[in-house]
Amino acid sequence: MNQSPTALLCVTCFLFFVLSTTTHANQASRLLSWCRTRRLHKSNQSPPFGQRNSVALPSSVFVGSQEADKIHALPGQPPDVNFTQYAGYVTVDPNAGRALFYYFAEATQDARFKPLVLWLNGGPGCSSLGAGAMMELGPFFVNRDGKTLYQNKFAWNNEANMLFVESPAGVGFSYSNRTSDYGQSGDSSTANDNHVFLVNWLERFPEYKGRDFYITGESYAGHYIPQLATAILKHNRRRPADAINLKGVAIGNAYLDDIINEKGTYDFFWTHAMISRTMHHRVTKTCDFARGDFSAPECLQAMMDADDAVGRLDHYDIFRPLCNEDSTDASASNEPLNPADPCAEHYVLSYLNLPEVQRALHANTTGLNYTWTECSNLVGSAQWRDAPRVMLPEITKLVQTGIRTWLYSGDLDSVVPFTATQYSLDMLELPEETAWRAWYAGGEVGGYVVGYRGLVFATVRAAGHLVPMYQPERALALFKSFLGGILPPKGE
Fold first, then answer.
1. CA geometry: angle 91, 97, 103, nearest 5 deg
2. How far apart are CA 218 and CA 194, in angstroms?
3. Longest CA–CA separation in the chain, Å
4. How many CA atoms within 13 Å lie on the side-chain side of 290?
5. How many domains would you assign to the chain?
6. Is 391 left (phi over 0), alpha (psi -120 to 50) or beta?
7. Domain span holding position 111
8. Along the chain (492 residues), what's the average pLDDT of each consecutive run of 10 residues?
9. Which of 64, 208, 241, 454 stands the most exposed, by the fewest C-beta atoms within 10 Å?
10. C-alpha separations of 105 from 108, 129, 162, 352 in Å
11. How far apart are CA 462 and CA 460, in angstroms?
């Protein structure tokens, strides 16, 4: 029986609603839901962030105590920790009682001379503490028992002072006393709150004022990072005496363009033997990628058939095994399988909801009436108020301003695949300065890199969407090259 366009739309919307409201939603399901929801709503491109918004400048600074935020020890952390940790809240709107939660790990050596780096996870609505710090690039990972930690030898605080913030309010431990804020979240408010957070955090940690500053992240941070960078540049023009020394941005598997991302995904499916040539042809023939119009019933059906054909796998890393729920039993061996344990999110969920952990982190001081989760049910695609279809104008502005701009892609991610990033870069039409070549880490090809005028694009071999989680050694090598402003090495 033929289905009407309305029926198709309703069924598809329902499926995406279920995906986006799963109790224990993770970053994978959140962004996949976002991408498919955006497919159904043809959107007009908004002006660049700097033109759409007057950047909020804090009228008063709520400094707070750095010493009060110092972490003496995290429950279950390994011995002989050689760096200082802080965590706590920074107020971004005193009238609303809105505050963002942060975790800060200083560099393991020479912290006074190392740059300050902010890491942002995406979603939208996912935690930079739970995903970024505790599953990808932070100093500690959680053991299977959900109570103890082990050290990450490829942590990024080997090279920099690493700052993680949970944003917007409603994500993780971040909150607002004005609960209506949760339904008003969007790109603009998130950028403004992140900017105010940073200004106020630097007042609490004045030794980092003037320090070289970089913004890094992944996924929907393809929106967050360029918009925050734009806010900082505007801040610097208004307050040159209090300028933030922004040097560069690096975004992994960056979500930059709704339409190009759809095309890149189905091209990735086909070139990785996940759908047939016939299915790929149906999608490209029936869907209008030129105009971003996917409303035709035959297009929606072709996409749904292709999605069904892909089957049940980890879309964030198509070669990665799925989590076996039985393996999360605390009675199992406490030895981690590897840094990319597919059940890691369960261990982190258990750990961050322990009362003693929250006390050590100075978290949940207001007694939130919900548990910590990797991705918030208060904030997400259903509540998101504004999101430009394309972020390339913001990327172009950063390049033109001389901000070091790197994009990198784990080559096994099908949600924001390297094909989509490459298509976006083609749209920028930047002159190529360094031809595509291999780069090396650990004695092997770590990936491939190409240098454009003002921008570098690198792939990371055998990595999924969460590059530092899947390939920690390669990710750290790439991060070190980024900070140094040099292309990753040709060989060792």
1. 35
2. 16
3. 68
4. 2
5. 1
6. alpha
7. 1-492
8. 38 36 58 68 55 52 83 96 97 97 98 98 95 98 97 98 98 96 93 98 97 98 98 96 97 97 98 98 96 93 97 94 72 56 95 98 96 91 84 98 98 98 97 98 97 99 97 98 98 70
9. 241
10. 9, 11, 5, 17
11. 7
User: The domain spanning residue 135 has which CATH number?
Assistant: 3.40.50.1820
Judged by DSSP in three states, 314 sits in coil
Residue 219 falls in the annotated catalytic set: yes
Q: Which amino acid is at 468?
A: P
Supply 7's token pair.
Answer: 């029926």
The Cα–Cα gap between 254 and 273 comes to 23
Q: How far apart are CA 224 and CA 249, in angstroms?
A: 11
Catalytic residue among 20, 189, 413, 414: 413
Dihedral angle sign, alpha carbons of residues 148, 154, 159, 165 = negative
pLDDT of residue 2: 44
Q: Is 326 a catalytic residue?
A: no
Identified catalytic residue from 195, 235, 315, 465:
465
Structure-block tokens of residue 6: 């309305």
Interatomic CA distance for residues 193 and 289, integer angstroms: 34
**C-alpha distance from residue 220 to each of 81, 120, 226, 284, 373 (Å):** 32, 9, 11, 25, 18
Contact criterion met (CB below 8 Å) for 30 and 125: yes
The verdict on whether 465 is a catalytic residue reads yes
d(CA 129, CA 419): 29
What's the alpha-carbon Rg for the chain, to the nearest Å?
Answer: 21
Going along 72-124, which residue ranges are E strands? Answer: 85-93, 98-105, 116-120
Annotate 357-416 with DSSP letters as a single string.
Answer: HHHHHT--TT--SS---SB-SSSSTTT-----SB-HHHHHHHHHHT-EEEEEEETT-SSS
Give the C-alpha separation, 456 to 453, whole Å: 8
Of 321, 289, 326, 287, give the one whose Cα is nearest residue 304. 287
CA 222 to the chain's CA centroid: 8
d(CA 327, CA 456): 40
Would you state the pLDDT for residue 172?
A: 98
Running DSSP on this structure, what letter comes out for residue 339?
T
Q: pTM for this structure?
A: 0.91
- What pLDDT score was predicted for residue 6? 36
- The sign of the dihedral angle between the CA atoms of 437, 439, 445, 448 is negative
Put residue 41 in one of left, alpha, beta given phi > 0 → left and psi -120 to 50 → alpha: beta
* Measured distance CA(150)–CA(97) in Å, rounded: 35
pLDDT of residue 17: 35
Tokens of 1: 């029986």
Report the distance separating Cα 293 and Cα 458, nearest Å: 30
In this predicted structure, what is the pLDDT of residue 18?
36
Q: What is the pLDDT, as a whole number, of residue 463?
A: 98
Q: Which two three-digit tokens encode residue 412?
A: 């096994």
Name the one residue in this structure whose structure tokens are 């996924």: 219
